[in-house]
Amino acid sequence: MIPAEIPTGIPADAGVLRLDHVAVAVRHVGAAAALFGGAIGGRFLFGGDNDHQGIRVAQFALPGGMKIELISPLRDDAPVARFLERRGEGVHHLTLIVEDVEVAVARLTGLGYDVVDVDLTSPHWREAFVRPRSAFGTLLQLADSTARWDTPAASGITLDDVLAGRVVFTDDERAVLRPG
Please, what are the domains in the chain? Predict the structure, then answer.
């Protein structure tokens, strides 16, 4: 329940700039890419493996500018693997780009929303999540970033490279070909 009065010192809003993408949890990125990247005309933007989180990611820009992010587990202990086991394939989260994730967290926690997994360690991608039970059944990712996420992959990285596991995200959030 949202309080009638906003507590003193809480920002006037969460600083949301835009809905960046809808993330869809899938068992195999390649199978889902046939739909989102082929049948409905999505254009591959970037992707790769996030070894820390144990996921493979591929993002597609749909006609009109909306983005879909496909995420699949690389190992059984990845959080998305547990999600798939409990809920099956489908929408995993919505990512909102905010002006400042710390301000957004202060706003939402000040209003009583359950914000978790706040990670401010990387200046290139700072994030926090609003739990689904606090957000009407929707996992919300709040993020601010110094990087552009709406342009195609650099260095000629292709969807085939991503699907073959040849691409990895670096600590500064760049997708690069794996060494060797």
Answer: 16-177 (3.10.180.10)
